[in-house]
């Protein structure tokens, strides 16, 4: 079973701590982990936790890893950006991750449009998903 863990770049310390626990639970459930390549926030914590706990995970990115020093396991390149304007590349990559995942956990800061859009899209596909909100000011 493939679990997408996605979330906001700007996150509270509580959200980051919760994210680490989500990774630990995913390991207990023997899930494969899918994550984006953002060098801050939720993505970064997921990648660092997976590396520390030595669990396979798949990082989806547009062209080349944005912080490759953390990648010690397979990277799944997203190649569908050709012909897509820059403002829509992230949306397309995010939808690709949702399409590839069986279930999803979204850790949201209460205002990040991308995290909420990913959650809404996964719900529209009738895939099991959850959203945990840790509000923070913009």
Structural class: alpha/beta
Unreliable stretches (pLDDT < 50, length at least 5) are: none
Task: Please report which band the strand proportion falls in: under 5%, 5-15%, 15-25%, 25-35%, 35-45% or over 45%.
Answer: 15-25%
- Write down how many β-strands occur, each being a DSSP E stretch of 2 or more residues: 6
Ends apart, CA distance between termini = 35 Å
- Main sheet record: 6 strands, parallel
Mean pLDDT: 85
Name the overall outline. Answer: globular
- What percent of residues adopt helix (DSSP H or I)? 40-55%
Instruction: Provide the gyration radius in Å.
Output: 14 Å
Q: Order of strands side by side in the largest beta sheet?
A: 4-3-2-1-5-6
What is the ordering of alpha helices and beta strands? EHEHEEHEHE
Number of helices: 4
Explain what the structure shows:
The protein is an alpha/beta fold and 138 residues long. It has a six-stranded parallel sheet, with helices on both faces. Helix 1 (13-28) packs across helix 2 (41-53) and helix 3 (86-100) crosses helix 4. The protein is globular, with a radius of gyration of 14 Å. Helix 4 links the parallel strand 5 and strand 6 (129-133). The longest helix is centred in the N-terminal third of the chain and has 16 residues, at 13-28. It has helices at 13-28, 41-53, 86-100, 113-124; strands at residues 2-7, 32-36, 57-61, 75-77, 103-108, 129-133.
């Amino acid at each position: 079973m493939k679990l997408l863990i996605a979330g906001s770049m700007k996150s509270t310390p509580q959200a980051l701590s919760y994210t680490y626990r989500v990774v630990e639970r995913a390991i207990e459930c023997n899930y494969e982990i899918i994550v984006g390549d953002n060098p801050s926030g939720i993505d970064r914590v997921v990648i660092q936790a997976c590396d520390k706990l030595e669990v396979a995970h798949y990082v989806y990115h547009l062209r080349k890893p944005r912080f490759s020093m953390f990648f010690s396991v397979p990277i799944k390149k997203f190649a569908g950006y050709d012909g897509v304007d820059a403002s829509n590349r992230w949306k397309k990559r995010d939808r690709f991750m949702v399409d590839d995942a069986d279930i999803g956990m979204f850790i949201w800061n209460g205002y990040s449009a991308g995290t909420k859009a990913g959650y809404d899209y996964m719900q529209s596909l009738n895939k099991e998903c959850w959203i945990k909100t840790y509000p923070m000011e913009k």
